[in-house]
Amino acid sequence: MARGRRCHQRGALLHGTVLSASGTAMLLRRNNCERQAFQLPTAMRQVASNRKATAAPFLRVRKGDSSIASWAAAPEAAIVLGLGAVQKGLRARRQCKGRNSIARGNGFLTNIQDFFTQSLMNMQGESGRPSSEADKPKIRVSSNMSIGQPFCGEYEEQPLKCHGRSVFSKLGLPAKSQPVYLLFNSANQWAFTPHGDGRPDGWAFVSDEADYPTAISGAFSIWDGSTWVQDTTIRFSDPSVRAGLQLDSQPSGLQEAEALAKVQAGAAAAAALSQTALTALPEEMQSLSMFHWKSHWAASQRCRIDWPEPPPDLDAKALPCHPGVRRGILPNGMRYVLLRNAMPPNRFEAHIELHVGSIDEDPNEQGIAHMMEHVCFLGSRKRERLIGTGSRSNALTDFQHTIYHIHAPCQLEDGRNMYYTSLEALNEIAFAPEMLTYRIEKERKAVLAEMQQVNDMEYRIETWTLSGLHETNKLGSQFPIGKEEQIKAWQQKDLRNFHEKWYYPGNATLYVVGDLDESEMIDGIKKVFESTPAKHMPSKDCAFLEPVWGEESADARSLFRRKIARPRPEQLHNFSLPMVGTRDKFSQAASFNPSEGGQPWHGPLRIFRNELLEGLQLNFYAKTPVRPLRTFEDIRHLVAVRILVGVLQFRIVSRYSSNHAPVQIDHSDSFREGCAVTSVTVNADPRDWRNSLACVVQEIRAICDYGITESELKRYKDAMLKDVQKGVQEHDTVPSEDHLNFIMTSDVFDHVVMHPEQSYEVFKAVAPTVSMPQMHATAKWMLGFIGYYGLAAASPPTAIVVCTPTQVFDESSGQWAPFNITEQEIVELLTTVPNKSKEEALNQIEVPESLLGSEKLEKLLGPAPVAAAAAWRASSRKVDDATGIVQLMLPNGARVNYACTSNESQGTMRMLVPGGRSADEPDQLGSSMVGIRTISESGAVSNFAREQIELFAVSNLLSVHLDLNLEFSYVDASFTNTSSGLTALLELVHLLFQEPRWEVPAFVRAQQAYKAQAFAVQKSLEQSTMDRLKRMMYSDLRVSESRVEDLNKLTLAQVRNAVNSQLRPQDLEINIVADFEGKGQSKMAGVEGGLSTGKHREEGVEEAEDVELPAAAKERRFLELDEALWKYLGSLPASKTPRGNIERPPKINVGEELPPEDRQRIAHQEDSDERAVANIGGGAPNRWGKGDEFHSIVMSRKNFTWDAAGSSVKDHRLYPSICLLAMREVINTRLFSTVRDSLGLSYDCSFDLSMLDRLEAGWYTMTVSAHPSRIMEAVEAAKGVLQGVKKRPMSDLELSTARRTLLRRHETDLQSNEYWISLLTHLQYDNPKDLSCVRDVEMMLNALTWRDLQNAYQTLLTDEEEVFVSVCTAGPGASFVSGGSAPAAVSTSSQKQLLEVE
Question: Is 443 a catalytic residue?
Answer without folding.
Answer: yes
